[in-house]
Request: fold
Amino acid sequence: MEVLIRENTEIGCLLGAKIIARVVREKPDAVLGLATGRTPLRLYQELIRLHRDEGLDFSRVTTFNLDEYVGLPATHDQSYRWFMRENFFRHINIDQKRTHVPDGTAKDLHAECRGYEQRIADAGGIDIQLLGLGRNGHIGFNEPTGSLRSRTWIKILSEQTLRDNSAVFGSFDSMPKHAITMGIGTILDARRCLLLAFGPAKVRAVEHMVEGPLSAICPGSALQLHPRATVILDENAAAGLRYADHYRWIDQHKLDWQKHR
Ligand code: GLP
Reply:
């Protein structure tokens, strides 16, 4: 796992955007795995800027989002489909037909899960998967103790996750309690993973994900198994890491081809 500690969210997000932009420049028909939440917002803004000011071309790019709430239609302003359209897709030249978000309103949710896996496989797999981290260590909506080999499935959200996300819903009771999410096995199949975590609320989850034992109690720790996982943190989120100085040392002594320029 490559751990990159940056001064603040702004610098971390600009670096994340740079990494994704490079993937798109090197492979114009790249398949991007995308995430929602507050964490990647600034990263999306920077990708939009790169599209507008530097011609970053998304016309041949395909995207697959990690997850969606069960029962929320694309027209609901808290659905992840809505989030992606408002915060990213409508500002770039992506072909909407190439953007995929699980359908939380599908009549047969199991068929939707199987179909989502098939669509990812048909697209040739995901080149880079962007991830955030829940306060309880979840990735996508894979809550603690879920199978580390899971494929796209339906998950019951934990009380903590619901509370963390409830502000935007107005009330806890009106929130969907279930979600469709790529499984941890699905995420680990991506050729590359890029996880962002910022702020003091993530400190324990980051500690467990990076330095704790590989355990379903912290789904993010599954990234320890990934051959090419990059984690970008700000100083606050990195505050609990025992080996922070080691990660900084590694970062400073990279060979030219290893640097994220
Ligand atoms: C949500 C999403 C995750 C996201 C995480 C963190 O529940 N399902 O994909 O990474 O929680 O959210 P935030 O970035 O807002 O802290």
